[in-house]
Structure formats: C-alpha cells, structure tokens
Amino acid sequence: MGRLTWAARLYIATVLAVGVVLIVRGPFTFSWISWRDIAVLGLLLVISESTATRLSEGNLSWSANTTATLAAAVLVGPVGAALVGACTVFSLRRGPSPAQRAFNTGMMALTAYVAGRVFIALNGQVGALTANSFPKIIWPFAIAAIVHVVVNHALLGGVLWLVRDAEGMGGAVSAVVNPRLLFSDLGYGAFGLLIAALWSVVGPFAPLLVLIPLFVARWAVAQFAAQQRAYEATVGALCQAVETKDFYTRGHSDRVSRGSVMIAREIGMRGDRVEALRYAGMLHDVGKLGVPTKVLQKTGKLTEEEYAAIQLHPMRGLDIVREIGFLDEALAGIMHHHERIDGRGYPMGLAGDEIPEFARVLAVADAFDSMTSTRSYRGARPTEEAIAELRKWSGTQFDPAFVDAFVAAINRDGWQRPEAPVIAADEVNIAATDHDDPSAPIRVSDSL
Amino acid sequence: MTERRHELRRHPWQVRDSGQLLLVVAAGVWLVASVAQTAAAGLRDVRTAVAFGVLIAFGEVLRLNLPGDRESAPIGFAGALAYALLIRVGVNHVQYTAEQVVTVTTIGMIVGALPHLAVGRPARVSGMASRLLCVACVAYIFRPLAGHAVLAHWGVAFSLMTSLAIVALLLEVILTALMRVDEQRVLFRVALVDEMRVQLPLGAAVGASALLIAFAAEVMGLAALAVFTAPLLVTQVAFRRYAGIRATYLQTVRALARVTELGGYVEAGHSERVSRLAVAIGRELGIHEPQLLELEYAALMHDIGQLSLHDPISGGATIFVSRADQQRIAELGADVIQQAQVLGAVAEIVRRQNEPFRDVQDPGGFPDPAGEERTGPPMSSRIIKAANAFDDIVGSSLDHGRAATAVQQLRLDTASEYDPDAVEALSRVVNRRSVVQM
Asked: Which residues in chain B are contacts of A321 at CB distance < 8 A?
C-alpha cells in the first residue's frame, strides 16, 4: 500500500482510534480482567497471525485468529478480547506495511470488542465455564461468532474497497465476501468455545491442545494454495508449448484468458466462474494442434476439406480437456467459442442465447487479441480500430453486452498489447491465416 | 485395461486380496463377540452411545479422499476414539465396556456407509475394518482403567490418553501400509514411510480432536460433540480442496500430455502407457510416492518437446530417430516444463531421459572405481528411457511374444544404454501382466 487516498487514511485512522479508545476506556468498567489469561490468549493470537496463509486472490492473507478473540470474549469479556485482538500488532509476519498493521490491529480490537458485547447482551456468562454453563452458552456464543465474522469482513471489505484503485485489487473485495472464507472463520470461531470450555479442566494448556488441529488445517490450506499456484504455472507452460507451432500466436491464449476475465469482472461474474473462464481462455485453442501445419501455413484459398479441419479445432480441443473434471462450464466455452450470434459460426451453428455464456465471452476476447496482434499478412491494428471492428460485428458475430463490457474495461484499465514480434530468418512456424481474425475471414475456394 | 479385464473374470469374493480378507475377518470375529457381549450385558449410558453413534455415522458419510487414492474418515475416527477415551460426561462417570465401544462404532460405521452404497460408491470395508480394529485396541486397554482413581489426576489421564491415541494412529498407518503392499505390490518399508507422510498431519488433527472431545465432554456434556465437529469439518474442507486440486492437476497433465497425440506426433495412448509402465517399475524399485508422482508427470510429458518440431516424426517412436534428434526433443520438452517453474525435478528427468546409463566413451566409468560416484542420469530418467523404448517397440499390442522379445532386446543393451535394474523391474512388471492376461 504505497500511496493511500485520504479516504483510506481516514478510514484506517478511525478504526485504529476506536480500537484504542475501547481498550483505554475499558478496564475501569470491567473488573474481571485476568492478565495471565489475556497473555496466553494474546500469544495464541500472535502465533496464528504470524502463520497466516496467503490467499490466491490479491494481496490478502488469512489466519485463524478468530479462535483467540472469541475465546477471549467468553473468558475475559469484551475489553479483554479487544486487548487480545490488539496483540495483532506483535504479528511476526513481514508482509504487511505499517498502515496494514495499524489497520489490522484496530480492526481485530474493534471486532473482538463488538463480539464480546453481543455475547454479554445475549446473557452469556463471562468467565471460566462450568458443567452447567452448557448448553445455554451455545446460542449467545454462536451469535457472537457470527457478528464477529461479519464485522471483521465488513471492515476489511471497506478498506479494500477504498484502496482498490490504488492497488488494482478489484477482485480482492469479492474475495473477502467469499462464503468459503466466512465459514472457515466461523469454524475456527468454534475452536474458541472449546478453548473456553477446556480452560476450567486444563487451564492455560487448553490452547496448546487446540493448536494442533488449527495448524493442521492451516497446513492443508497452505498446501492447497501451493498446489493451485503450481497448477496454474503448469497449465500456462503447457499452453505455451501448444502455441509454439504458430509463431504469431505466441502469448495469444494468455491474453485471451486475461481479456475474458476483464469482461467477466465487468459484468460481475461470480468468483469461481471467473476462475473457470480463465482456464477456458488459456485452453481454448488447444485443439488447433490437430490442424495440419500445411493448412495453417497455406497462403491461397483453402479447400473445403482444409477449412473443415480448421472448423473442427474446437471439438478437438474439447476431446483433450474433457477429462479435466472441474471445467464443466469451461468445456462448453471451449467447444463453442467460434459460434456467432447470428448462427453462422462453427462447429454447431448455434445462435443467440443458445451459445453458452463462456463461449460468447471468449469469442470477443479472442477476436480482439487476434486483431491487435501482428499477423503474417498484416501488422497489428491499433486498439481503437479493433474496438471499432468489434462494434461493427456486435450483434451479428458478437454478443453486444460483452462487447460493451470489454470496451468499458479496456477504456478504464487499458490493454496490454503484445510486443511486435521479431522474426528470425529461419523461423518456420508461420501461419498464413488466422481463423480468429473477423476482419480477414479465411477464404475458401467455391469449387470442390 | 488388462487389470480390469482380469477382475471381471474372477468371482466377486476372489477380488479382495488375501491380506484385506484377513483383516476384515479379524474385525468381523471381534465384532461378533463384542455384539454378543453387549447384547447380554445390555447397553449402558444410552444417550452417550446414541450421540457418539450419530457422530461416527456422520463422519463416515463425510469420508475424504486423500492424495494417492487413500480414503479416510477423520470425523468418524476422531469420534470413535473419543468414545473409547471418555471418562465423564458432565459430572457423571460413564460405565460402558470396551465391547460396547466396538458395537456402537460398528453400527455408526455401517449406518454411515449406507449413503455411499446408495449412490453406488464402494463401501470400502477394509478401511472400515482397520479403523474399527484401532478403536477396539484403544477401548480394550482404556475402558477397564476409565473408572480408576489414578485417572482422577488430570496429568495422568492426559498422558495415558495421548499415548493411546498415538498408538491407535500408528496402528492405522501400519494396517493401511500392509494393505497397500498387498494391492499395489509396493515394498512395505516404502509403503510405511509414504503412509506416515500422508497420514501424519490429518492423524495429528484427529488425535487432538479426540482428546479435545473427551475432555470437553466433562465440562460441556454431549454438546462437546456438536461444537467440536465444526472445526474438524473446516479442516476436512481444507483437505478436500487440497486433494481435489491434486487430482485436477494430475488429470490436467494427463489430458494435456495427449496434445502430442492429437498433433500426430506420437501414437495414440503412448504417453499414458509409458507413464503406467514407468510408475509400475518405480514401485517395483521402491521409489517413494512424491518421487513417483514426479516420475508419472515426467513420463506423461516425456514427448512434449516434439510439439516444437516442425513436422511430426513418422509414427512418433523416438527410439528410431538419431540420438541428436532425441536429445533435442528432450531438451525442448524440458524447456517447456521448466517454464512452469514448480516442476524443476520433472524437467530434469525429461531432459536426461535419453542419456545412456553408462558412458560408452568411458567404459569403466560409472560408478567410478575410486569410489566417487559420477552422477549418471536420475533413476526416473532411466526408468522412462526403458519404458519408452519398450512401448516404442511393443506399442498397444498385447502379444506376449512381442513383449518378451522387446524385453530381451533391452536386456542386450544393458551394458551401456539401459539401467539393468530398471530393465529387470520392467521384465517383472511385464511378466506379471502376461500372467494376468492368461
């Protein structure tokens, strides 16, 4: 977070100030503060905070700190909980900037205080639990946990919304309201009740027992993130390998993927669908490998058979990626990305809404990248010209809604054009035509 | 394919391997005795029994597939262990016996397995049997002591329960490793280490959760079960996603490795066959699972470098082209894989897949007489070299004579080209297959 807007600075300062005021004002009104318990719980918080996991979306990390603050809300009341939450400041993580650290500290203190207040308001008894505390403690605790998670994510969402332009973290806001993350936090909140319950049996050793499952879960989350990164890198590398066959289209899949994601974000597509679309973009032309090199490199008109080979490539691509389980919707996108709204596309000749949404998105990004890249028969066209071309075919070849969304996204965020290729004298992988280019349709000879 | 055909021809009761059968029978006998005893003595602490039974059933419904086709039921197992280790619910001491623990656990497991059967998934009896045996061991040791005055002290109870949970988890690891030895012909030593590596994190969570419930029940009563389930559920969700992406990863590499077939660069099914053969050889040679996965990836992608060739090699069989060309394909392929950054080891395997086992220029060469080992190609590269050569000669043919000739041909070349160990392992794998086919 280099440069912050004034609004963001004000927001962070407010959250921090409220947190500090709550703590400073606090102990005079509550008499059950136990410093030893706060220290143990604060340590628990610092440990879970220091071992936070990076999420794949944006610059976010996720930690299991809900456990410590909610346990504190039960054991030492709202002010104690706020104090425990404020221990976030001691986090050993190197990542966050001072502004982030200040905000996190204020946020956790504030959140924990609110949860503690809710717990008391619902007749929850503060202090070590006894055998007859159950089950009547469960409801106040559950509500307090829900409030904790909601307040936490709302505060976080607020700051991300304020810094979104500076950081380009548009996706991060939706990541915070990711239901999976909300449920994870609630689940870890339940650990808080376990710690509170065990406190009367095993005392401050309770967190120790609770730490093990906590760390295992954290480990699994980290493993997941690592695997996902590895997966992305591998898919990217393999797609690149496919592209080497045509010199001019190198990087095409990657750019189509980015363009499709821009459209998807613009129309507010759900996070997991955006992910699937991203892979669909990367994999959309895999089937082109089934088109013989001599067809791709032919300069004159193509025969019917040769054109049929090109028209078949989405199906060939589908054949390959069909076995990849998670891609359901993406498969339809890959298969139909050359359909046209007026029904004159291939391979099935679908029209209008019959064409899957993913395919309509891909078609726009695909054609746009083709036009703005250099081809053997023409140079790269300027962005404005390519946009004009998209508009021209909007409604016949492309879905107007997605063309509008794409143009809006490009006008706001810009488009990173491919660099003009430098062709080595011995380069053999040069295609003569581009099936993606709407402005230069492939010519097919009429006679059979 | 061959294995599947083989299974179809046997009767269902013959399919289960002898080791698994033994395990299931042992668990069954123990179970019958326990049920009889429980029925005679009557069910004690009925509410507790029902609550834990429900939890175990719930845990069995939510079974989890761990990497490497392992099945586990963390919630059910933790619940059963907690039931075996319970001392008090609230202020009341529980009175039930070890036999009752076995009975309740089994009923829970069977009820939990029903939904799996209903949707056509296998019941996985052997997995259930091994979990049951572990729980039974803990119960038979701990139940007689549960009422003892010594356990009134927190520290003693804690240490005893911890050690028993560890024993149970170790026992499960050993039993699963034994089953894998039976199923996949892995070496026991290798299977044990692999099993430990995979099961340790989740096992630790299961053990800790079991202790947590057993202790929390003293304060919370049976509500402890409901409260504890949520966190372990979160852990399980995290594991499920992890296992899911691992599976997707493998699927994707498998699928994308096929692009070489689509382009006409290699014969259909070649990558898949080479990878299956290479993994079987790797198991035979005692390669551990993480390296086995790398071997599988490398074998699947060993021909990916051909994509960079202008025109496909006719028939795609790389052993019939010049060594320089082979080397160029390997280099190109390794470069592609290197792009992914995370697969450095895989790229190295692919890069060196054509290197001869011993340098012909330096016949005395490897291993060096001075005792200093020169670095030959990695084991995985040698395996792929042998498997690839075998498949280039034999292809999809199922003819035993042809396979035997191919093995013989490779054997003649073990002086320099092929690693004799890899070729011998390949020969064993191939022989086993042809026995299965007859």
From this structure: 255-256
| A–B CB contacts, 8 A cutoff, strictly below | 200
Name the residue type at position A110.
L
Q: The tokens of A120 are what?
A: 């008391």
Radius of gyration, CA atoms only, chain B: 27
B353 by DSSP, 3-state: which? coil
Q: What is the distance in angstroms between the Cα of B203 and the nearest Cα belonging to chain A?
A: 9
Distance CA A204, CA B180 (A): 42
Q: What's the topology of domain B258-437?
A: Hypothetical protein af1432 (1.10.3210)
Phi (first) and psi of residue A444, to 5 degrees: -115, 135
CB contact under 8 A, A198 and B259: no
B93 sits in which H/E element = strand B92-93
Distance of CA A90 to the CA centre of its chain: 28
Contact B173, B203 (CB under 8 A): yes
Residues of B in contact with A216 (CB under 8 A): 201-202, 204-205, 235
From B152, which residue of chain A is nearest by alpha-carbon distance?
A201
Q: Left (φ > 0), alpha (ψ -120 to 50) or beta: where does A419 sit?
A: beta
- Side chain identity at B197, as an amino acid letter? R
Profile chain B (438 residues) by mean pLDDT over runs of 10 residues. 40 57 86 89 90 95 86 93 91 90 94 92 86 94 87 83 94 91 86 91 91 86 80 84 87 82 79 92 92 92 80 60 82 85 86 79 48 68 92 84 88 86 91 65
Partner residue facing A235 (CB), from B218, B239, B252: B252
CA-based nearest residue in chain A for residue B341: A233
Query: pTM of the predicted model, to two decimals?
Result: 0.77
What was the pLDDT predicted at B13? 44
CA B328 to chain centre: 35
Domain locations along chain B: 2-246, 258-437
| Nearest one of A74, A48, A67, A63 to A190, comparing CA atoms | A67
Both tokens assigned to A429: 């992988």
Domains of chain A: 6-225 (1.10.1760), 244-413 (1.10.3210.10)
Round to whole Å and give the CA distance between B174 and B137.
Answer: 14
How far apart are alpha carbons A226 and A220 in whole angstroms?
10
Q: Please judge whether B249 and A230 are an interchain contact, meaning their C-beta atoms are less than 8 angstroms apart.
A: yes
Q: What is the pLDDT of residues B55-71, one digit of tens each?
A: 999 999 998 888 877 88
Beta bridge partners of B66: B70
Chain A residues with beta carbon closer than 8 angstroms to that of B342: 229-230, 233-234
Residue pair B78/B206 in contact by the 8 Å Cβ criterion: yes
Query: Environment class of residue B433 by beta-carbon count within 10 Å: exposed (0-12), middle (13-18) or buried (19+)?
Result: middle
User: pLDDT, tens digit, for every residue of B247-270?
Assistant: 888 888 888 888 887 777 778 888
Q: Which residues of A touch B293 (CB under 8 A)?
A: none
Residue A374 has pLDDT above 90, yes or no: no
With 0-12 CB in 10 A as exposed, 13-18 as middle and 19+ as buried, what is A159? Answer: buried
Q: Are the beta carbons of B201 and A321 separated by less than 8 Å? A: no
Please indicate whether, in this complex, the C-beta atoms of A224 and B241 are within 8 angstroms of each other: yes
Tell me which residue in B249, B264, B337 faces A227 most closely, judged by beta carbons.
B249
